[in-house]
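ugh ok fine here u go
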Amino acid sequence: MTAINGRDLIAWGFEPGEWFRRAVALANAMRAEGADDAAILAHLRAIEPSANPIPMRTNALEFGVFLEAETEAERANAAAVIRHMDALMRVPTIVKGAVMPDACPSGFVEGTIPVGGAIACEDAIHPGFHSADICCSVAITVFRRADDPKRVLDAMQAVTHFGPGGRTGVVKPPDAVTAGVAGNRFLAEFANIAVGHFASQGDGNHFAAVGHLASTGQVALVTHHGSRGLGAQLYKKGMAVARRHTSIVAPRIPAHNAWIKAESDDGRAYWEALQIVRDWTKASHFALHDLVARKIGNAVADRLWNEHNFVFRRDDGLYYHGKGATPSWAGFSADDDGRTLIPLNMAEPILIARHRDRAGSLGFAPHGAGRNMSRKAYLRENAPTPPAGIDVRFFCGRADPSELPGAYKDAKSVRAQIAKYDLAEVVDTVEPYGCIMAGDWEADAPWRRKAQEKARLKADAERAAQAAG
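structure:
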């Protein structure tokens, strides 16, 4: 099949212009993915620029601020969040926005959506607004019979996996999810990752925690992780499509704020991919929980889960993006039972909350405690130690002090702001016993060992040369 060129576009009735180079590249990419000429033509007509491409807004839209600051570090954090949001609210697809009490910057480039940011858009899905950790989420299983929390945590440590990569042969994704991955053009090439990374938890702030329900004393297991490599690859492909689209219809929009037109072939396929990744992630959580239940021989009394890095569509037709923001409105998903989970830090209770649907917050609540400064900045200024009375474990065997409680915002303050602004109603808590996190696996990562060995060999060669000379 011959490649599409500019003459073909002219023959199809398009006016030549600066956008032709990008349009030709897009048309050939669609053809390579199996699209016929009718589909390519329809898509190019949908994105053909007018005489006046979509501009950035001159002034930012107003946005809800549910973020208080008392200390110097909190004030600096809040100022950075507001600065990023002010730039972000100039993007023309955005209709509404808000920041949660746990908000903190997630990048240095101006207009990067902060953690704790919520954005509503019209006919647009912004991959940069959910970021690479698509469907980062929290799940809980409550066990029916009394049990020793240490035994539950031991069982979880035996069946889970933290750190880079995944594993195979432990448990496979459900057949429906596997079929969904294979049938979606954004996901099909990552079928091996969908299997290999299933029932694994990654690194960073992801955790497995065990504690007791304050209401009943029952033992509960809580996990926090996202879609791993599957979501990261979807994000990468989504950003490429978004940048191609936005470079044509709105070339002055910063690349990190690019979007996919929701009501387009790309938008519908990407939306479908997001739902498949959501199903994969939910199944990944509960596959681990089921392994633990079988290992300890205990029955499941209750379970629920919710995502906090995702895109939702509400009855008003807008696309609501939560970047580290917990949905707090009835029916945010088909499996919503009216409750969500908000973890704070490893030494504090995990909140079980009912929805409040506060209009000013776009119906969102915090996803946790957030940070007032970066990991590196925190470690430069502090020498943290594990909290007393908590069974803290690091899967790789090396502690990650940037995940200890002091690295996060004051949990009691965040909880007080949730109540003050009526963002969610806390109805129960998981009182902490212990948790497992990845730990500082990068300190002994293969690439780091290779670099250290290379440096050692170079130093040995230099010493040998000096001795010989």
